[in-house]
């Protein structure tokens, strides 16, 4: 047998084992996401996660020592994806872009992410989440606020930094409040709440933008 072929055959089993391991981890994380959404992090157990994944607890422990490790791995992956999402949603825009269009595009991108991964909200805003997730979320929150300030500065170029920060906090707070309602509904009713959330943000920002441009609202 040629040396190159023999070497290739020797290398295949570890790669297959690694691929199987990655698939198993993904399976366990998906099951954990379902359990965390259903019961919350505090009430969740490794046995419930293993049962949801269709594996034995022993199989789960081959990959994760406890539910905190599962939550941290799940949180890390979600936050990485979230950073990519807000990078696209809050990218610099042309200042002549209509406010309603800019707000609508950003809200839709974030809503799509949260609806696709409802466990993100459950993990990030639960009453008892692992410390490392809390720290990572705080860092993500600070970066997100900074990006929102950057987006707002396109519409409020002369606003003092303190005003931009306050407005960014209000926008994020309004979004979180609306998101909870959005996630609690489905179908046409969810779509209606998404539109209401866009309306709230536009109606909050429109007078501020008008005042900065010298066109005070009614």
Overview of the structural elements:
The chain is mostly helical and 218 residues long. Helices cover 79% and strands 0% of the residues. The protein has nine helices and no strands. Helix 4 (67-89) runs antiparallel to helix 5 and helix 5 (99-116) packs across helix 6 (118-124). Mean pLDDT is 85; it is low at 4-10 and 213-218.
Summarize the structure.
This protein is mainly alpha-helical and 218 residues long.
Outline the fold blueprint:
Blueprint: H1 3-39, H2 46-53, H3 57-61, H4 67-89, H5 99-116, H6 118-124, H7 131-155, H8 161-183, H9 187-212
Helix pairs in contact: 1-2, 1-4, 1-6, 4-5, 4-7, 5-6, 5-8, 5-9, 7-8, 8-9
Keywords:
218 residues; mainly alpha; 9 helices; 0% strand
* Amount of helix: over 70%
Distance between the termini: 85 Å
Radius of gyration: 22 Å
Shape: elongated
What is the H/E string?
HHHHHHHHH
Count of beta strands = 0
Low-pLDDT segments: 4-10, 213-218
């Amino acid at each position: 047998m040629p040396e190159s072929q023999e070497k290739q055959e020797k290398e295949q089993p570890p790669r297959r084992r690694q691929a199987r391991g990655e698939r198993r981890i993904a399976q366990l994380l998906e099951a954990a996401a379902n359990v965390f959404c259903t019961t919350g992090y505090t009430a969740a157990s490794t046995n419930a996660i293993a049962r949801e994944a269709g594996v034995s607890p022993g199989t789960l422990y081959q990959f994760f020592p406890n539910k905190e490790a599962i939550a941290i791995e799940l949180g890390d992956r979600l936050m990485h994806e979230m950073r990519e999402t807000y990078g696209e949603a809050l990218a610099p825009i042309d200042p002549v872009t209509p406010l309603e269009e800019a707000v609508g595009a950003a809200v839709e991108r974030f809503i799509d992410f949260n609806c696709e991964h409802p466990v993100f909200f459950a993990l990030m805003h639960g009453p008892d989440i692992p410390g490392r997730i809390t720290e990572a979320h705080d860092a993500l929150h600070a970066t997100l606020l900074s990006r929102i300030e950057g987006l707002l500065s396109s519409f409020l170029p002369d606003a003092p930094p303190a005003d931009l920060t306050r407005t960014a906090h209000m926008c994020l707070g309004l979004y979180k409040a609306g998101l909870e309602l959005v996630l609690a509904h489905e179908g046409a009713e969810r779509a209606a709440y998404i539109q209401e959330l866009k309306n709230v943000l536009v109606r909050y920002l429109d007078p501020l933008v008008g005042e900065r441009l010298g066109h005070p609202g009614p």
